[in-house]
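Thread: quick sanity check before group meeting

JM: Hey all, I'm pulling together slides for Thursday and realized we never actually wrote out the predicted structure for the chain we discussed last week. Dropping the sequence here so it's in one place. If anyone has concerns about the input, flag it before I start.
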Amino acid sequence: MKQFKVLDYDIIYLSYDEPNAEENYQALLDRFPRAKRVDGVKGIHQAHIAAAKKCFTKMFWVVDGDAELSRGFEFDYEVSEWDLETVHVWRSINPINNLEYGYGGVKLLPRSLTLNMDISIPDMTTSISDKFKAMPEVSCITAFNTDALSTWRGAFRECVKLASKTIPGQVDEETEQRLTTWCTVGANNEFGKYAIHGAQVGKHFGTAHKDDKEILYKINDFEWLKEQYDEYKDSI
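JM (edit): ok, ran it. Output follows.
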């Protein structure tokens, strides 16, 4: 069993209704038995606040419920003194379209700022701090394509954020390339057609409401997302 140091940051596994959550959590515990879990908290922001409340270190790791952790990822990054207010996001691989960036990646968050985040901002990651660092290492596969609803919902949420440009510092050319890939690539992969449809609808929704933060915030309401999916599911 791996021994952990006093300076190791707490690890929180954050799940809601992911079909593969139990399997992924057990795999995480097998390698990192100090990991804790927050499950079933309604609201993305509220779930992360609940995670911060379980922690006792200045920074804490967050692993999403659909994340299949990369074998080489070790939770051994140590934050420098001047980066203690910075949100760190590692890269993840999208199993449908092979995009590789921060979508669904492991995060390292400042505990105090997370507890006091601005819950009115649609994108949770950027509601914590104005300091952000994209990390180059791949942390996991974001296995969101476990069923039709989860796949559609994940693609819709991400493409709303990309299309509405709610994330500060987005590079327009890079964002457009990612949107195009989400909306066109991977139809033959498992639940790929649901990802592409969700991405296309999300792109339209995000573009149409890019200046209305209140409407954009709906992407964090999983009951509302289920209603949107139900409107389309029979035609996908």
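AS: nice. The first helix runs from residue 21 to 31. Helices lie at 21-31, 44-53, 111-115, 148-164, 172-184, 192-208, 213-216, 222-232.
JM: adding both to the slides.
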